[in-house]
Protein backbone atom coordinates (compact mmCIF):
# COMPACT_ATOMS: atom_id res chain seq x y z
CA UNK A 1 0.00 0.00 0.00
CA UNK A 2 2.89 2.26 0.86
CA UNK A 3 4.02 1.92 -2.74
CA UNK A 4 0.76 3.46 -3.95
CA UNK A 5 1.02 6.34 -1.54
CA UNK A 6 4.50 7.15 -2.65
CA UNK A 7 3.66 6.79 -6.33
CA UNK A 8 0.66 9.03 -5.88
CA UNK A 9 2.96 11.68 -4.49
CA UNK A 10 5.42 11.16 -7.33
CA UNK A 11 2.64 11.30 -9.88
CA UNK A 12 1.29 14.48 -8.38
CA UNK A 13 4.77 15.96 -8.36
CA UNK A 14 5.35 15.02 -12.00
CA UNK A 15 2.03 16.37 -13.15
CA UNK A 16 1.97 19.58 -11.17
CA UNK A 17 5.62 20.20 -11.89
CA UNK A 18 4.85 19.87 -15.60
CA UNK A 19 7.92 17.72 -15.89
CA UNK A 20 9.03 18.21 -19.46
CA UNK A 21 10.08 14.58 -19.98
CA UNK A 22 6.70 13.45 -18.74
CA UNK A 23 4.90 15.95 -20.97
CA UNK A 24 6.84 14.73 -23.98
CA UNK A 25 5.94 11.13 -23.20
CA UNK A 26 2.29 11.94 -22.67
CA UNK A 27 2.14 14.06 -25.80
CA UNK A 28 3.72 11.34 -27.92
CA UNK A 29 1.37 8.72 -26.46
CA UNK A 30 -1.63 10.84 -27.35
CA UNK A 31 -0.26 11.68 -30.78
CA UNK A 32 0.38 8.04 -31.63
CA UNK A 33 -2.86 6.61 -30.31
CA UNK A 34 -5.14 9.39 -31.56
CA UNK A 35 -3.56 9.25 -35.03
CA UNK A 36 -3.92 5.48 -35.09
CA UNK A 37 -7.56 5.73 -34.04
CA UNK A 38 -8.26 8.34 -36.70
CA UNK A 39 -6.68 6.20 -39.42
CA UNK A 40 -8.33 3.04 -38.15
CA UNK A 41 -11.72 4.80 -38.12
CA UNK A 42 -11.22 5.99 -41.70
CA UNK A 43 -10.58 2.40 -42.76
CA UNK A 44 -12.63 0.45 -40.23
CA UNK A 45 -15.94 2.31 -40.39
CA UNK A 46 -16.47 1.96 -44.16
CA UNK A 47 -15.23 -1.62 -43.91
CA UNK A 48 -17.73 -2.34 -41.14
CA UNK A 49 -20.53 -0.72 -43.13
CA UNK A 50 -19.62 -2.71 -46.23
CA UNK A 51 -19.60 -5.94 -44.26
CA UNK A 52 -22.98 -5.01 -42.76
CA UNK A 53 -24.98 -4.03 -45.85
CA UNK A 54 -22.87 -5.21 -48.77
CA UNK A 55 -23.66 -8.39 -50.64
CA UNK A 56 -20.37 -9.47 -52.13
CA UNK A 57 -18.53 -12.77 -52.30
CA UNK A 58 -16.31 -13.27 -49.31
CA UNK A 59 -18.47 -11.22 -46.99
CA UNK A 60 -18.91 -13.97 -44.43
CA UNK A 61 -15.22 -14.91 -44.28
CA UNK A 62 -14.47 -11.19 -43.92
CA UNK A 63 -16.79 -10.93 -40.92
CA UNK A 64 -15.27 -14.02 -39.30
CA UNK A 65 -11.80 -12.64 -39.95
CA UNK A 66 -12.62 -9.22 -38.49
CA UNK A 67 -14.13 -10.79 -35.40
CA UNK A 68 -11.14 -13.06 -34.91
CA UNK A 69 -8.67 -10.22 -35.46
CA UNK A 70 -10.28 -8.14 -32.72
CA UNK A 71 -8.15 -10.16 -30.35
CA UNK A 72 -4.85 -9.88 -32.24
CA UNK A 73 -1.95 -10.03 -29.80
CA UNK A 74 -0.15 -6.66 -29.96
CA UNK A 75 3.29 -8.27 -29.87
CA UNK A 76 2.47 -10.34 -32.93
CA UNK A 77 1.22 -7.28 -34.81
CA UNK A 78 4.37 -5.48 -33.71
CA UNK A 79 6.52 -8.33 -34.94
CA UNK A 80 4.84 -8.47 -38.36
CA UNK A 81 5.08 -4.70 -38.83
CA UNK A 82 8.68 -4.90 -37.67
CA UNK A 83 9.47 -7.49 -40.33
CA UNK A 84 7.70 -5.41 -42.99
CA UNK A 85 9.53 -2.23 -42.03
CA UNK A 86 12.94 -3.66 -41.27
CA UNK A 87 15.66 -2.78 -43.74
CA UNK A 88 15.35 -6.11 -45.55
CA UNK A 89 11.54 -6.05 -45.47
CA UNK A 90 9.22 -5.06 -48.33
CA UNK A 91 8.55 -1.66 -46.76
CA UNK A 92 12.10 -1.18 -45.55
CA UNK A 93 12.73 1.64 -48.01
CA UNK A 94 10.30 3.83 -46.08
CA UNK A 95 12.84 3.99 -43.31
CA UNK A 96 10.25 4.51 -40.60
CA UNK A 97 11.18 1.69 -38.24
CA UNK A 98 11.78 3.04 -34.72
CA UNK A 99 9.83 6.22 -35.46
CA UNK A 100 6.38 7.32 -34.27
CA UNK A 101 5.09 6.64 -37.80
CA UNK A 102 5.81 2.94 -37.35
CA UNK A 103 4.01 2.98 -34.00
CA UNK A 104 0.99 4.63 -35.57
CA UNK A 105 1.00 2.02 -38.31
CA UNK A 106 1.18 -0.86 -35.86
CA UNK A 107 -1.62 0.48 -33.66
CA UNK A 108 -3.75 1.17 -36.73
CA UNK A 109 -3.40 -2.44 -37.81
CA UNK A 110 -4.23 -3.50 -34.29
CA UNK A 111 -7.50 -1.56 -34.01
CA UNK A 112 -8.88 -1.60 -37.55
CA UNK A 113 -10.44 -5.01 -36.86
CA UNK A 114 -11.94 -3.76 -33.59
CA UNK A 115 -13.56 -0.73 -35.19
CA UNK A 116 -14.65 -2.67 -38.28
CA UNK A 117 -16.11 -5.63 -36.39
CA UNK A 118 -17.94 -3.57 -33.77
CA UNK A 119 -19.28 -1.07 -36.31
CA UNK A 120 -20.38 -3.96 -38.53
CA UNK A 121 -22.55 -5.17 -35.65
CA UNK A 122 -23.97 -1.71 -34.94
CA UNK A 123 -24.76 -1.03 -38.60
CA UNK A 124 -26.21 -4.46 -39.24
CA UNK A 125 -28.63 -3.95 -36.35
CA UNK A 126 -29.61 -0.59 -37.82
CA UNK A 127 -29.98 -2.19 -41.26
CA UNK A 128 -32.64 -4.52 -39.84
CA UNK A 129 -34.61 -1.46 -38.82
CA UNK A 130 -33.90 0.79 -41.82
CA UNK A 131 -33.31 -1.66 -44.65
CA UNK A 132 -36.74 -1.80 -46.23
CA UNK A 133 -37.29 1.93 -45.85
CA UNK A 134 -33.98 2.76 -47.50
CA UNK A 135 -34.60 0.33 -50.34
CA UNK A 136 -38.05 1.82 -50.76
CA UNK A 137 -36.49 5.27 -51.04
CA UNK A 138 -34.26 3.93 -53.78
CA UNK A 139 -31.04 3.85 -51.79
CA UNK A 140 -28.45 1.37 -53.05
CA UNK A 141 -26.19 -0.61 -50.71
CA UNK A 142 -23.22 1.77 -50.86
CA UNK A 143 -25.32 4.86 -50.26
CA UNK A 144 -27.23 3.05 -47.49
CA UNK A 145 -23.95 2.16 -45.82
CA UNK A 146 -22.95 5.80 -45.53
CA UNK A 147 -26.45 6.81 -44.44
CA UNK A 148 -26.32 4.23 -41.66
CA UNK A 149 -22.80 5.29 -40.63
CA UNK A 150 -24.15 8.77 -40.05
CA UNK A 151 -27.35 7.61 -38.39
CA UNK A 152 -25.54 5.37 -35.90
CA UNK A 153 -22.90 8.00 -35.17
CA UNK A 154 -23.58 8.03 -31.43
CA UNK A 155 -23.10 4.28 -31.10
CA UNK A 156 -20.07 4.44 -33.35
CA UNK A 157 -18.46 6.96 -31.04
CA UNK A 158 -18.45 4.23 -28.40
CA UNK A 159 -16.89 1.88 -30.93
CA UNK A 160 -14.13 4.38 -31.64
CA UNK A 161 -13.52 4.84 -27.94
CA UNK A 162 -13.09 1.08 -27.62
CA UNK A 163 -10.41 1.36 -30.29
CA UNK A 164 -8.77 4.24 -28.47
CA UNK A 165 -8.80 2.27 -25.24
CA UNK A 166 -7.08 -0.63 -26.93
CA UNK A 167 -4.51 1.61 -28.61
CA UNK A 168 -3.56 3.59 -25.55
CA UNK A 169 -3.33 0.50 -23.37
CA UNK A 170 -1.18 -1.72 -25.56
CA UNK A 171 2.55 -1.96 -25.06
CA UNK A 172 3.74 -4.86 -27.19
CA UNK A 173 3.35 -3.37 -30.65
CA UNK A 174 4.78 0.09 -29.95
CA UNK A 175 7.62 -1.47 -27.97
CA UNK A 176 8.74 -3.62 -30.89
CA UNK A 177 8.35 -1.18 -33.78
CA UNK A 178 9.19 1.94 -31.78
CA UNK A 179 12.08 0.57 -29.84
CA UNK A 180 11.29 2.66 -26.75
CA UNK A 181 13.98 5.19 -27.62
CA UNK A 182 14.26 7.92 -25.02
CA UNK A 183 12.90 11.18 -26.33
CA UNK A 184 11.92 9.71 -29.69
CA UNK A 185 9.55 6.77 -29.40
CA UNK A 186 8.99 6.45 -25.67
CA UNK A 187 5.31 6.41 -24.73
CA UNK A 188 3.57 5.89 -21.42
CA UNK A 189 3.06 2.14 -21.64
CA UNK A 190 6.61 1.40 -22.77
CA UNK A 191 8.00 3.70 -20.12
CA UNK A 192 5.96 1.93 -17.48
CA UNK A 193 7.31 -1.42 -18.62
CA UNK A 194 10.87 -0.09 -18.67
CA UNK A 195 10.74 1.64 -15.29
CA UNK A 196 9.17 -1.44 -13.73
CA UNK A 197 11.95 -3.65 -15.00
CA UNK A 198 14.51 -1.13 -13.74
CA UNK A 199 12.84 -1.24 -10.34
CA UNK A 200 11.60 2.35 -10.28
CA UNK A 201 8.14 1.34 -9.19
CA UNK A 202 6.95 4.75 -7.97
CA UNK A 203 7.69 6.34 -11.33
CA UNK A 204 6.08 3.43 -13.16
CA UNK A 205 2.98 3.61 -11.01
CA UNK A 206 2.86 7.37 -11.32
CA UNK A 207 2.84 7.04 -15.09
CA UNK A 208 0.14 4.40 -14.78
CA UNK A 209 -1.97 6.83 -12.81
CA UNK A 210 -1.48 9.52 -15.41
CA UNK A 211 -2.37 7.07 -18.20
CA UNK A 212 -5.55 5.90 -16.53
CA UNK A 213 -6.55 9.48 -15.71
CA UNK A 214 -6.07 10.51 -19.33
CA UNK A 215 -8.05 7.58 -20.71
CA UNK A 216 -10.77 8.27 -18.19
CA UNK A 217 -10.89 11.97 -19.06
CA UNK A 218 -11.07 11.24 -22.78
CA UNK A 219 -13.87 8.73 -22.32
CA UNK A 220 -15.79 10.90 -19.90
CA UNK A 221 -15.72 13.95 -22.16
CA UNK A 222 -16.68 11.90 -25.21
CA UNK A 223 -19.54 10.37 -23.25
CA UNK A 224 -20.80 13.73 -22.00
CA UNK A 225 -20.68 15.26 -25.47
CA UNK A 226 -22.47 12.23 -26.89
CA UNK A 227 -25.19 12.44 -24.23
CA UNK A 228 -25.74 16.14 -24.81
CA UNK A 229 -25.94 15.82 -28.59
CA UNK A 230 -28.01 12.66 -28.49
CA UNK A 231 -30.60 14.26 -26.26
CA UNK A 232 -31.18 16.83 -28.96
CA UNK A 233 -31.29 14.31 -31.83
CA UNK A 234 -33.18 11.39 -30.30
CA UNK B 1 -46.73 2.95 -65.19
CA UNK B 2 -50.13 1.66 -64.06
CA UNK B 3 -51.87 -0.72 -64.20
CA UNK B 4 -50.12 -2.92 -61.66
CA UNK B 5 -50.99 -6.54 -62.35
CA UNK B 6 -50.48 -9.44 -59.97
CA UNK B 7 -50.46 -12.77 -61.76
CA UNK B 8 -51.03 -15.69 -59.47
CA UNK B 9 -48.61 -14.19 -56.96
CA UNK B 10 -47.53 -16.65 -54.31
CA UNK B 11 -45.13 -16.10 -51.43
CA UNK B 12 -43.76 -18.87 -49.30
CA UNK B 13 -41.40 -18.84 -46.36
CA UNK B 14 -39.96 -22.14 -45.18
CA UNK B 15 -42.66 -24.06 -46.99
CA UNK B 16 -45.43 -21.96 -45.46
CA UNK B 17 -47.67 -20.22 -47.94
CA UNK B 18 -48.22 -16.66 -46.78
CA UNK B 19 -49.69 -15.32 -50.02
CA UNK B 20 -51.61 -17.84 -52.06
CA UNK B 21 -52.10 -17.30 -55.81
CA UNK B 22 -53.37 -13.73 -55.74
CA UNK B 23 -54.58 -12.28 -59.05
CA UNK B 24 -55.37 -8.57 -59.09
CA UNK B 25 -55.17 -5.46 -61.21
CA UNK B 26 -54.66 -1.99 -59.79
CA UNK B 27 -55.62 0.93 -62.00
CA UNK B 28 -55.10 4.65 -61.85
CA UNK B 29 -57.48 6.99 -60.06
CA UNK B 30 -59.06 4.74 -57.47
CA UNK B 31 -58.07 4.38 -53.86
CA UNK B 32 -57.62 0.70 -53.16
CA UNK B 33 -57.97 -0.55 -49.61
CA UNK B 34 -56.67 -3.99 -48.69
CA UNK B 35 -58.70 -5.28 -45.80
CA UNK B 36 -58.32 -8.38 -43.73
CA UNK B 37 -57.72 -9.65 -40.23
CA UNK B 38 -54.30 -9.60 -38.59
CA UNK B 39 -51.96 -12.10 -40.15
CA UNK B 40 -53.97 -12.30 -43.38
CA UNK B 41 -50.89 -11.29 -45.38
CA UNK B 42 -51.71 -7.63 -46.11
CA UNK B 43 -48.25 -6.30 -45.29
CA UNK B 44 -46.55 -9.07 -47.23
CA UNK B 45 -48.78 -8.39 -50.25
CA UNK B 46 -47.87 -4.69 -50.18
CA UNK B 47 -44.17 -5.55 -50.01
CA UNK B 48 -44.58 -7.88 -52.99
CA UNK B 49 -46.30 -5.12 -54.96
CA UNK B 50 -43.61 -2.60 -54.02
CA UNK B 51 -40.80 -4.97 -54.95
CA UNK B 52 -39.36 -5.36 -51.45
CA UNK B 53 -40.19 -9.07 -51.63
CA UNK B 54 -39.95 -11.31 -54.66
CA UNK B 55 -42.82 -13.75 -55.30
CA UNK B 56 -41.98 -17.44 -54.95
CA UNK B 57 -44.31 -18.04 -57.87
CA UNK B 58 -46.28 -15.80 -60.19
CA UNK B 59 -45.35 -12.29 -61.23
CA UNK B 60 -45.81 -8.63 -60.37
CA UNK B 61 -46.08 -6.65 -63.60
CA UNK B 62 -46.30 -2.96 -64.26
CA UNK B 63 -47.79 -1.26 -67.30
CA UNK B 64 -45.87 0.81 -69.79
CA UNK B 65 -43.07 3.17 -68.86
CA UNK B 66 -40.72 3.41 -65.96
CA UNK B 67 -41.68 0.67 -63.52
CA UNK B 68 -38.74 1.15 -61.17
CA UNK B 69 -39.12 1.66 -57.45
CA UNK B 70 -38.22 5.29 -58.15
CA UNK B 71 -41.82 5.96 -59.24
CA UNK B 72 -43.27 4.36 -56.13
CA UNK B 73 -43.23 5.21 -52.47
CA UNK B 74 -44.24 3.37 -49.33
CA UNK B 75 -45.25 4.49 -45.87
CA UNK B 76 -44.66 1.78 -43.32
CA UNK B 77 -46.74 0.99 -40.27
CA UNK B 78 -43.95 2.24 -38.04
CA UNK B 79 -42.24 5.18 -39.75
CA UNK B 80 -38.49 4.80 -40.15
CA UNK B 81 -36.94 8.25 -40.02
CA UNK B 82 -33.31 9.17 -40.13
CA UNK B 83 -31.51 10.71 -37.17
CA UNK B 84 -31.45 14.18 -38.65
CA UNK B 85 -33.87 17.08 -38.95
CA UNK B 86 -37.33 16.67 -40.42
CA UNK B 87 -36.29 18.83 -43.35
CA UNK B 88 -33.12 16.81 -43.97
CA UNK B 89 -35.14 13.61 -44.02
CA UNK B 90 -37.00 15.04 -46.99
CA UNK B 91 -33.96 16.39 -48.82
CA UNK B 92 -32.33 12.98 -48.36
CA UNK B 93 -35.28 11.29 -50.10
CA UNK B 94 -35.22 13.91 -52.86
CA UNK B 95 -31.50 13.42 -53.38
CA UNK B 96 -32.10 9.69 -53.81
CA UNK B 97 -34.61 10.52 -56.54
CA UNK B 98 -32.00 12.65 -58.28
CA UNK B 99 -33.84 15.91 -57.72
CA UNK B 100 -31.34 18.71 -58.49
CA UNK B 101 -29.74 20.07 -55.34
CA UNK B 102 -31.05 23.61 -55.79
CA UNK B 103 -34.66 22.40 -55.92
CA UNK B 104 -34.51 20.13 -52.89
CA UNK B 105 -34.91 22.61 -50.07
CA UNK B 106 -37.89 24.35 -51.61
CA UNK B 107 -39.63 21.10 -52.42
CA UNK B 108 -38.92 19.71 -48.96
CA UNK B 109 -40.31 22.82 -47.29
CA UNK B 110 -43.39 22.73 -49.48
CA UNK B 111 -44.02 19.09 -48.59
CA UNK B 112 -43.59 19.80 -44.88
CA UNK B 113 -46.05 22.62 -45.23
CA UNK B 114 -48.72 20.39 -46.74
CA UNK B 115 -48.66 18.10 -43.71
CA UNK B 116 -48.56 20.96 -41.22
CA UNK B 117 -45.01 20.35 -40.06
CA UNK B 118 -43.38 23.57 -41.26
CA UNK B 119 -42.84 24.68 -37.67
CA UNK B 120 -40.77 21.60 -36.78
CA UNK B 121 -38.66 21.55 -39.94
CA UNK B 122 -35.38 21.95 -38.07
CA UNK B 123 -36.29 19.60 -35.22
CA UNK B 124 -34.74 16.13 -35.20
CA UNK B 125 -37.18 13.66 -36.74
CA UNK B 126 -36.54 11.16 -33.96
CA UNK B 127 -37.93 13.41 -31.25
CA UNK B 128 -41.24 14.17 -32.99
CA UNK B 129 -44.49 12.64 -31.68
CA UNK B 130 -45.88 9.48 -33.27
CA UNK B 131 -48.43 11.42 -35.27
CA UNK B 132 -45.86 13.96 -36.43
CA UNK B 133 -43.49 11.17 -37.43
CA UNK B 134 -46.17 9.50 -39.51
CA UNK B 135 -47.05 12.80 -41.17
CA UNK B 136 -43.37 13.36 -41.86
CA UNK B 137 -43.19 9.92 -43.47
CA UNK B 138 -46.17 10.94 -45.61
CA UNK B 139 -44.54 14.23 -46.51
CA UNK B 140 -41.43 12.32 -47.56
CA UNK B 141 -43.49 10.00 -49.73
CA UNK B 142 -45.36 12.90 -51.22
CA UNK B 143 -42.26 15.03 -51.85
CA UNK B 144 -40.94 12.50 -54.35
CA UNK B 145 -44.22 12.72 -56.30
CA UNK B 146 -44.71 9.00 -56.81
CA UNK B 147 -47.14 7.54 -59.31
CA UNK B 148 -48.15 4.97 -56.70
CA UNK B 149 -48.14 5.24 -52.93
CA UNK B 150 -48.36 2.14 -50.75
CA UNK B 151 -49.42 2.64 -47.15
CA UNK B 152 -49.29 -0.12 -44.55
CA UNK B 153 -51.75 0.58 -41.74
CA UNK B 154 -50.63 4.21 -41.64
CA UNK B 155 -52.70 5.05 -38.58
CA UNK B 156 -52.34 1.83 -36.60
CA UNK B 157 -50.33 3.42 -33.79
CA UNK B 158 -52.04 6.79 -33.68
CA UNK B 159 -54.76 8.34 -31.57
CA UNK B 160 -58.01 9.39 -33.31
CA UNK B 161 -57.02 13.03 -33.82
CA UNK B 162 -53.65 12.13 -35.32
CA UNK B 163 -55.37 9.47 -37.44
CA UNK B 164 -57.71 12.04 -38.92
CA UNK B 165 -54.80 14.30 -39.82
CA UNK B 166 -53.03 11.43 -41.54
CA UNK B 167 -56.19 10.47 -43.40
CA UNK B 168 -56.63 13.98 -44.69
CA UNK B 169 -53.05 14.02 -45.98
CA UNK B 170 -53.68 10.72 -47.77
CA UNK B 171 -56.76 12.26 -49.34
CA UNK B 172 -54.68 15.24 -50.53
CA UNK B 173 -52.11 12.95 -52.08
CA UNK B 174 -54.88 11.07 -53.88
CA UNK B 175 -56.31 14.31 -55.20
CA UNK B 176 -52.88 15.30 -56.46
CA UNK B 177 -53.07 12.28 -58.77
CA UNK B 178 -51.17 9.56 -56.93
CA UNK B 179 -52.58 6.05 -56.94
CA UNK B 180 -53.27 5.01 -53.34
CA UNK B 181 -52.97 1.38 -52.26
CA UNK B 182 -53.30 0.99 -48.51
CA UNK B 183 -53.93 -1.69 -45.94
CA UNK B 184 -55.98 -1.23 -42.84
CA UNK B 185 -57.99 -3.31 -40.48
CA UNK B 186 -60.03 -0.28 -39.50
CA UNK B 187 -63.42 -0.50 -41.19
CA UNK B 188 -64.26 3.15 -40.61
CA UNK B 189 -61.04 4.18 -42.28
CA UNK B 190 -61.73 1.86 -45.20
CA UNK B 191 -65.12 3.54 -45.69
CA UNK B 192 -63.67 7.03 -45.44
CA UNK B 193 -60.69 6.49 -47.71
CA UNK B 194 -61.49 3.59 -49.99
CA UNK B 195 -63.02 3.42 -53.45
CA UNK B 196 -62.54 -0.31 -53.75
CA UNK B 197 -61.74 -3.12 -51.38
CA UNK B 198 -59.55 -6.18 -51.71
CA UNK B 199 -60.41 -8.53 -48.90
CA UNK B 200 -57.65 -10.88 -47.87
CA UNK B 201 -57.95 -13.87 -45.56
CA UNK B 202 -55.25 -16.45 -44.85
CA UNK B 203 -53.18 -15.23 -47.77
CA UNK B 204 -55.95 -15.57 -50.34
CA UNK B 205 -57.81 -12.81 -52.11
CA UNK B 206 -61.29 -13.71 -51.02
CA UNK B 207 -63.25 -10.81 -52.34
CA UNK B 208 -62.91 -7.70 -54.42
CA UNK B 209 -65.62 -5.05 -54.65
CA UNK B 210 -66.48 -1.37 -54.69
CA UNK B 211 -66.50 0.08 -51.20
CA UNK B 212 -70.29 0.34 -50.84
CA UNK B 213 -70.94 -3.07 -52.32
CA UNK B 214 -68.41 -4.62 -50.04
CA UNK B 215 -70.05 -3.31 -46.91
CA UNK B 216 -73.64 -3.81 -48.10
CA UNK B 217 -73.38 -7.18 -49.78
CA UNK B 218 -70.22 -8.99 -48.78
CA UNK B 219 -70.26 -12.21 -50.74
CA UNK B 220 -67.85 -14.36 -48.75
CA UNK B 221 -68.50 -15.75 -45.32
CA UNK B 222 -65.07 -14.46 -44.18
CA UNK B 223 -65.94 -10.90 -45.20
CA UNK B 224 -69.35 -11.15 -43.57
CA UNK B 225 -67.74 -12.30 -40.36
CA UNK B 226 -65.01 -9.66 -40.59
CA UNK B 227 -67.51 -6.85 -41.04
CA UNK B 228 -69.49 -8.12 -38.11
CA UNK B 229 -66.28 -8.20 -36.14
CA UNK B 230 -66.44 -11.90 -35.56
CA UNK B 231 -63.34 -13.03 -37.31
CA UNK B 232 -60.72 -14.12 -34.81
CA UNK B 233 -57.74 -11.77 -34.66
CA UNK B 234 -54.77 -13.97 -34.43
N1 LIG C 1 -40.53 -12.19 -43.37
C1 LIG C 1 -41.40 -13.11 -42.91
N2 LIG C 1 -40.97 -14.37 -42.65
C2 LIG C 1 -41.81 -15.29 -42.19
N3 LIG C 1 -43.10 -15.10 -41.97
C3 LIG C 1 -43.60 -13.88 -42.20
C4 LIG C 1 -42.78 -12.82 -42.69
N4 LIG C 1 -43.54 -11.72 -42.80
C5 LIG C 1 -44.77 -12.09 -42.45
N5 LIG C 1 -44.82 -13.38 -42.10
C6 LIG C 1 -46.00 -14.12 -41.70
O1 LIG C 1 -46.93 -13.96 -42.75
C7 LIG C 1 -48.25 -13.84 -42.25
C8 LIG C 1 -48.87 -12.58 -42.79
O2 LIG C 1 -48.21 -11.47 -42.21
P1 LIG C 1 -48.62 -9.98 -42.53
O3 LIG C 1 -48.57 -9.74 -43.98
O4 LIG C 1 -47.75 -9.12 -41.69
O5 LIG C 1 -50.10 -9.91 -42.01
P2 LIG C 1 -51.05 -8.64 -41.88
O6 LIG C 1 -50.28 -7.46 -42.36
O7 LIG C 1 -52.24 -8.94 -42.73
O8 LIG C 1 -51.43 -8.53 -40.45
C9 LIG C 1 -48.13 -13.85 -40.75
O9 LIG C 1 -48.48 -15.16 -40.29
C10 LIG C 1 -46.68 -13.56 -40.48
O10 LIG C 1 -46.26 -14.22 -39.33
MG1 LIG D 1 -49.57 -5.81 -41.38
- Report strand % of chain A: under 5%
The CATH C-level class name of one domain in chain B: Alpha Beta
Helicity range of the residues of chain A?
A: over 70%
String of helices and strands of chain A: HHHHHHHHHH
The CATH class designation of chain A is: Mainly Alpha
CATH T-level topology of one domain in chain B: Rossmann fold
Give the low-confidence spans of chain B. none
Shape of chain A: globular
The gist of it:
Chain A has one domain (20-233): MetI-like (MetI-like fold), CATH 1.10.3720.10. Chain A contains 10 helices and no strands.
Provide an overview of this structure:
The complex is a heterodimer of chains A (234) and B (234). With 234 residues, chain A is mainly α. Chain A has one domain: MetI-like (MetI-like fold), CATH 1.10.3720. In chain A, 81% of the residues lie in helices and 0% in strands. In chain A, helix 9 packs antiparallel against helix 10. The model of chain A has no long low-confidence stretch (mean pLDDT 93). Chain B has 234 residues and is α/β, with parallel strands linked by helices. Chain B has a domain of 122 residues: P-loop containing nucleotide triphosphate hydrolases (Rossmann fold, 3-Layer(aba) Sandwich). In chain B, the strands form 2 sheets. Chain B has a 6-stranded mixed β-sheet, sandwiched between helices. In chain B, strands 2-1-4 form a 3-stranded antiparallel β-sheet, with helices on one face. In chain B, helix 2 crosses helix 3, helix 3 crosses helix 4 and helix 4 packs parallel to helix 5. At the A-B interface, helix 5 and helix 6 of A face strand 5 and helix 2 of B. The structure holds adenosine-5'-diphosphate and magnesium ion. Magnesium ion binds next to helix 1 of chain B.
Amino acid sequence: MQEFGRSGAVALGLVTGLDSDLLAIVALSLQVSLSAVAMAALIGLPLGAAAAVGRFPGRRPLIVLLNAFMGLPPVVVGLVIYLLLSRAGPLGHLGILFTPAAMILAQTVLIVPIIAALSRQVIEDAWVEYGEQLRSLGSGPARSGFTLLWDTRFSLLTVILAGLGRASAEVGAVMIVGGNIDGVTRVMTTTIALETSKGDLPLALALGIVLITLVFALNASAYLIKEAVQRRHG
Amino acid sequence: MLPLVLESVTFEVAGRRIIDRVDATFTHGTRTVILGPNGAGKSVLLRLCHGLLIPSEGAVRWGRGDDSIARQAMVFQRPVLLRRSALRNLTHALALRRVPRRERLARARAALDTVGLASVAERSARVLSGGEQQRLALARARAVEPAVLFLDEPTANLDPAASREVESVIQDIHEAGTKIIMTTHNLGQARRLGDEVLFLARGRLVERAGIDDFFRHPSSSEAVAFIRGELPWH
